[in-house]
Amino acid sequence: MVINLGKNLVPLLLLVVSTTSVFAQQNRPAVPEWSDREFALVQADDARPRDEQIDQSYRLPTDTVPSHYTIRLHTDLHTGSRAFKGIVDIQFDVIVPTATITVHNRGLSVSSASLYAKQEEDGLLVEFGFPQYELDARTEQLTFRSEQVLPIGSYVLTVEYSGNLETSSNSGFFLKSYVNDEGERRYVGTTQFESTNARMAFPCYDEPLLKATYTLWITHSGEYNAVSNMPVDAVEPSEEYEGYVTTKFGPTPKMSTYLLAFGVSDFVAIEDGQQQVYARPNAIDEAKFALEAGVRVLDALNAYTDVSYYDYMPKLSQMAIPDRGGGAMENWGLVKYGEPALLFNPERNTYRARKGIAVVIAHEYAHQWFGDLVGPQWWSYIWLNEGFANLYGYIGADLAYPSERYWDLYAVENVQNAFGPDSTDTIRPMTQDATTPSAIAGLFDTIAYDKSGSVLNMFRTVLGDDNFRAGLKVYLLNRQLDGAVADDLYAGLQAAIDGKDVLPAGVTVKQLMDSWTTEPGYPVLTVRRNYDDGSVILSQERFYAEKRQQNANIWYIPYSFATASNADFEDLSAFQWLAKKAERVETGVAADEWILFNKQQTGYYRVNYDAHNWLMLASALRADPEAIHRFNRAQLINDAFHLARANRHDMTLALDLLTYLSGEREYVPWAAANGVLNYFYNKLRGTANYHDFIVYVDALIGDVFDSLGDITTVPEDETLLQKYLKQLISTWACRVGYTECLRQTADALHTAVETNTPVHPDVSYVVYCYGLKGATDDEYRWLFDQMITSGNEAERTLLIDALGCAQDQSQLVSLLAVAIGGNSELNSLLNSERSRIVSSIYSAGRIGVEALIEALSDPLVTGEFLNRFGQGTLNSVVSNVASRTNNDAELEQLEQFLAALGDLISQETAEAAVRTVKTNAAWFESFEGVVSTTYFANFAK
């Protein structure tokens, strides 16, 4: 496709692309935007928590169960061919006499089927006929019908079939490619079976409880190699196809279909003991950190669980897939990642990338126990997989790299992240049934990950880490190579604490945990002090972000507290429980002392106080921030703001509390504050109240920014959390116009261009983003060239985000032309990167919004935009333009934009955009808006 540049689009960047990199010269296949999370899942059990209102016809019959699969695949993917063929022998047992065998199939063409009975005495197979078969496209169930009823016993069903590798989605058996150093396109065949995608590679019982063992043979080009869950047993020349070999793998342990994995490529590996990392040859040098982290994390988790991984699997491989996005998948023995989630180049990638890789490796390795060794009986219990992986991703990384303090990030990145969606009235509980592939995929959400990990961490803390570990060992060994339900976990934990006086008499782990796993939402613990006698009244109710509503659920809330005279935040060994709606508790705390509940925010709930206690806490923070634990400082900021937004106390109180931040030097509280400041920035930018807000921000960040010194260099002794803090503070300093911040970033960018030397990756985003303010076209072209010639996907993403920060509309319009266009030099851009360019333009500031309005007001350009991205992306642009419209002049621009688009967008989309703007405007007349703007105005006087 060649873009019509129209009268407005300037081909600034199309003329200057370097051709020094083969990577930049070649066509790359289109891929969709990929999630940071692991991919969606699907499958079934028989202790199934069935919701009878959900269509259970998607569940397989229970009269037959699999025991072993022998799979023989043939692929020509080295030529780019999508076609593959296979033969699968499904060994299964008949539990109830039946004439039908029902398995799953999606998109495979079956050419023949034969059935054999396995003799009990000698194991010989006796032909049992050639069953007829039919596919139910709705349920994806493939049913084979025997001419006679099959009595109880063992059988083998042999199915010959063919299929096509996916290229439009990263599902099933799919095809990717890359360009090697000789300029040749090389292909990669890989798999993503979680949740219901194994059926796209071979007919199978695609439900999680229906575990079996697997023997896999793959015939492929002799120039390529194959990898799978198990080590290679043999590589033999193909007798049928010249130049081909058959790679044979040993049988797997018993496991779910979604955990089977394989890859065919020309990748190479680095190795340390029983671990390997596979990557394309021209990226293998970037795999060293992944191998090191993998070894460290596995050692740490082996010790932590006291259940050795190597008791079940002989090796553990990691594989970096090009063009796959940033996700990962925990296949037993073969963990697969998108390249940005595994490959690390210290010359190109940031501290954030390194942290992300360490945590995602630990997340996937935790799954080797939680999901692989023991998996959920049905997707209702997916939190038994993802909650543990979420939690032990941080714990495992922290154990492997204790000096990095990864655990500091857990609450702000997970607990506080889960609070948002979990405060709506439409959210689901942790345990939730689903049967259709799409509904099952929908279970892989923040509830399965962030909330579940947070709840598990709460009980880990309450029970004590040693007891929790002992209980997990019981659970893992009792359910090894099998499915589990929540009660199995509870039984293991209960066994570990029986007789230890950990919980109140007569209270069980099941009682406590069910109150959190079977009900949606979470509570706010309200603390009302009696300053005369030192008592408090504790009460609980479900927290809703938008309203107050009665809720009958009672959570068993573990609580602990610290006070001004006993500010011991480290002792988490003792908890009390609120097991009713309200209760009076003696604390003995003096009237002039603050009290703070939920030490280190280990409990998954918010805490509200009477106004006087809030004021004492704010005063204590201003006097000495370190008097209160850094995790609780972050908790106070997050709770105070969201409680105010829910009209549970005054916003003035929350904003006043934040003023202590001028003395805050820890990242975690600033991370919580960042969300608050962004909220008001988005509300007030472009309005008459913006100046007052900037005065407030200046009071918070000024001293902290001054303490940073040179923000464009990276001292050798700078810690991970110092890097996080420096980027956050310098981002705000440059955003609100600090002259020194803008001078340093502009000078650093100018020097980088003059010397043709990229800045240190750990400061690259701030330098590039804000250095572009006033940058020349030559400087902008240089930064664009850094992106387009890079072979590192994570670096390319960062540079795309930085390019969107330009303050020159012509530069941004030209960048948009790159995203839309099909210029041959730009074929290295992935579809996901093209979409990222669009979002980077409107996300960085109002200049970008106006650049999009200008460009897309031309119907010729919009037509090309639609051809490239589709209607959904155009609708998203309109929605994001509306959400960033804050004043009358901007509203007029939006209305002109909508008029220019005409029938290229639906009336519903246009009306929704106008409603968004009206909602933005109405905020200023709301109670929250009036209180907030009045506070900022008074502060600025």
TrEMBL record:
Where's it found, cell-wise? Cell membrane
Task: Give the cofactor binding note.
Answer: Binds 1 zinc ion per subunit.
Domain Peptidase M1 membrane alanine aminopeptidase: from-to ranges: 289-516
Q: Domain ERAP1-like C-terminal: where?
A: 594-901
Q: What biological-process terms (Gene Ontology) are attached? A: peptide catabolic process; proteolysis
Query: What are the record's GO terms for cellular component?
Result: cytoplasm; extracellular space; plasma membrane; side of membrane
- A Pfam family that this protein carries is Peptidase_M1_N
- Topological category with respect to the lipid bilayer: Lipid-anchor; GPI-anchor
Can you tell me which residues form the catalytic site? 364 (proton acceptor)
Q: Which reaction does it catalyse?
A: Release of an N-terminal amino acid, Xaa-|-Yaa- from a peptide, amide or arylamide. Xaa is preferably Ala, but may be most amino acids including Pro (slow action). When a terminal hydrophobic residue is followed by a prolyl residue, the two may be released as an intact Xaa-Pro dipeptide
Q: Which residues bind Zn(2+)?
A: 363, 367, 386
Question: Where is each Aminopeptidase N-like N-terminal domain found?
Answer: 65-259
Q: Which UniProt keywords apply?
A: Aminopeptidase, Cell membrane, Disulfide bond, Glycoprotein, GPI-anchor, Hydrolase, Lipoprotein, Membrane, Metal-binding, Metalloprotease, Protease, Signal, Zinc
Q: Which cofactor does it need?
A: Zn(2+)
Q: Which GO terms describe its molecular function?
A: alanyl aminopeptidase activity; metalloaminopeptidase activity; peptide binding; zinc ion binding
Specify where it is mainly localized. membrane
Q: Kindly indicate where the leader peptide sits in this chain.
A: 1-24
Tell me which residues are marked as the site Transition state stabilizer: 449
Question: What's the Enzyme Commission number for this chain?
Answer: 3.4.11.-
**Similarity-based family:** Belongs to the peptidase M1 family.
UniProt protein name: Aminopeptidase
Give the species this sequence originates from. Answer: Anopheles atroparvus
